[in-house]
TrEMBL record:
SMART domains: Dak1_2 (SM01121), Dak2 (SM01120)
SUPFAM superfamilies in the cross-refs: DhaL-like
Gene3D superfamilies: 1.25.40.340
GO biological process: glycerol metabolic process
Coiled-coil segments: none
Record lineage: Bacteria, Bacillati, Actinomycetota, Actinomycetes, Micromonosporales
GO molecular function, one term: glycerone kinase activity
Protein name: DhaL domain-containing protein
PANTHER family cross-referenced by the UniProt entry: DEGV DOMAIN-CONTAINING PROTEIN DR_1986-RELATED, PHOSPHATASE PROTEIN
Source organism of the structure: Micromonospora sediminicola
Residue stretches spanning the membrane: none
Residue span(s) of domain DhaL: 8-205
Length: 537
């Protein structure tokens, strides 16, 4: 049993946490509220912790040269490795939890119970700050409950506080279906929260030498689901504004109040050395930037205009000439070739923060746009952009959720425009491109379009199931009709790796008959899981 958390214990915690996540990887992947076959939270957390362990292993136990204690040095290495290896939203948030712990505990002479409680409080703040629109019933609720329990324990005994945090996290995880109807309908708990509980259990085991009891994460109920709406942009405000700000704590306090009066989704996060990352959704962009000028020195200003419920996320986009470059995430060989033909650097699907950062640096450009093409990759892209900013590279992220949106964004690039103006144009083009995905249901579920069974054909529009069919071609043509019913001049079709021969030709022929003034472009995308991706501009 340990009285303090030393560097060796940090290393054992990372190794034990990774091993635990690996054992439960399939279980966590299965906690997916969609019937489509792409749940990968468990895999993403394993890859995130693998990177953390690699960072610790490469250090080889050397003495810290950063002025921090040995345990603080180990925690910083673990957090840094997790950040660079983070995949998916849960991976990014877990990396921020580790960063919060490292920041709070790095300089502490010894880590006992009260220090661990303070570290969990900072970890919670860092986790919430990493999300533009925090949602309860997720990993955030679980870490928050752990931190509150650790504080209530009010003890210097490390074992008492660690146990209190882990037990509270397990109880909070069991409550997540009560907080999110999507989880309740699915009969599952939050996948990221489950992963965090396993990490806290591993910490208890390292500290106490005893395996904690594993309470059932949630009552086993039926799994009908698929109704979860993915994150969208602010409904009340049209623009997202982000910038870095050099300012004092007092000035930032006033800034928060001013920005809160202008809009919502406000997050102002500092690095402890006078630099702040400011994020807000507003209608008056000028006022938001002016408030930053009054508070201090804003720089790396980015603006995104939300259109057609485009998702909130970092920011905008750009081209290749004049010191610019584009980095695009792609699933499927055909899609990768399309992006490469547009002059973009292509990164394989589900990249880590470090992989995206390497791609950004490899361009050699001073201004880079990143198009993630997946809601779950947006947090990773944002983290990579922040890291790149520290290297002097200006990076903007256009929050594309589908490859068809990225194609629309890349098509409007113009190196003759200012970078910021080009970014706004790309974001507008992506937002004006509605997208749909057609796939086969992986399990029985209850969707907003009705119940589905394994093998049924599902058509998802903007991430939500709109149609359920039995015939692939009929469902594909029906979803195109539904999308064109809202207007459109150009339809883009990307055929997947498992698409039957002639699918695109049949959909094209239907559009030519039913919508004679609409242009159709069809490509072999090669993406897995989805026989057809559709974009309508």
């Amino acid at each position: 049993m340990l009285d303090t958390l030393d560097a060796a214990a940090v290393r054992r915690w990372c190794a034990s946490g990774l091993a635990t996540l690996q054992r439960h990887q399939g279980e966590i992947d299965g906690l997916n509220v969609y019937p489509v076959p792409d749940g990968d939270t468990g895999t993403n957390l394993v890859l995130t912790l693998t990177s953390a362990q690699q960072a610790l292993a490469m250090d080889l136990g050397t003495l810290p040269d950063d002025g921090h204690t040995p345990h603080g040095h180990a925690l910083r290495l673990m957090a840094r490795g997790a950040l660079l290896g983070a995949r998916g939203n849960s991976g990014v948030i877990v990396s921020q939890i580790l960063r919060g712990l490292a920041d709070a505990l790095a300089a502490a002479p010894a880590v006992r119970g009260r220090q661990l409680a303070a570290g969990l409080a900072d970890a919670t703040a860092a986790a919430y700050a990493a999300v533009a629109r925090p949602v309860e019933g997720t990993l955030l609720s679980v870490v928050s409950a752990a931190a509150r329990a650790a504080e209530r324990a009010d003890s210097d005994d490390l074992r008492t506080v660690a146990r209190a945090a882990a037990e509270a996290a397990a109880r909070a995880l069991a409550r997540t279906p009560e907080q999110l109807p999507e989880l309740a309908r699915a009969g599952v708990v939050d996948a990221g929260g489950r992963g965090l509980c396993l990490l806290l259990d591993a910490l208890v085991e390292v500290i106490t030498g005893e395996s904690p009891g594993q309470p059932a994460p949630a009552p086993p109920v039926r799994r009908p689901t698929a109704t979860a709406a993915r994150e969208t942009g602010s409904d009340a405000y049209a623009y997202e504004v982000q910038y870095l700000l050099d300012a004092t704590d007092e000035a930032v306090t006033r800034l928060r109040a001013e920005l809160a009066a202008l809009g919502d989704s406000l997050a102002v996060v500092g690095d402890g050395s006078g630099t702040w990352n400011v994020h807000v959704h507003v209608n008056d962009v000028g006022a938001a930037v002016e408030a930053g000028v009054v508070a201090g020195r804003p720089h790396r200003i980015t603006v995104t205009r939300f259109a057609d419920q485009t998702a909130p996320a970092p920011a905008p986009a750009v081209a290749l000439p004049d010191g610019r470059a584009a980095v695009v995430v792609a699933t499927g060989a055909g899609i990768a070739e399309l992006f490469a033909a547009e002059g973009a650097v292509v990164v394989p699907a589900n990249p880590s923060t470090g992989e995206l950062l390497d791609a950004i640096r490899a361009t050699g450009a001073a201004r880079v746009v990143v198009l993630p093409n997946d809601p779950n990759t947006q947090s990773v892209a944002s983290a990579a952009a922040k890291e790149a900013h520290g290297l002097g590279v200006k990076v903007s992220v256009v929050p594309t959720r589908s490859p068809v949106q990225a194609l629309a964004a890349l098509a409007v690039r113009d190196p003759k425009r200012r970078f910021e103006d080009d970014v706004i144009a790309m974001a507008e083009a992506a937002g004006a491109c509605r997208y749909a995905e057609v796939c086969h249901a992986g399990r029985e579920a209850l969707t907003v379009a009705g119940p589905c069974r394994p093998g049924d054909v599902l058509a998802l529009v903007e991430g939500e199931v709109h149609l359920i069919g039995q015939d692939l071609t009929d469902t594909c043509t029906a979803v195109v009709d539904r999308m064109l019913g809202g207007g459109g001049e150009l339809v883009t079709l990307l055929c997947g790796a498992d698409a039957p021969a002639g699918l695109a030709d049949r959909v094209r022929a239907h559009v030519e008959r039913s919508w004679p003034f609409v242009e159709v472009q069809a490509y072999e995308g090669g993406q897995p899981h989805y026989p057809l991706l559709v974009g309508v501009e």
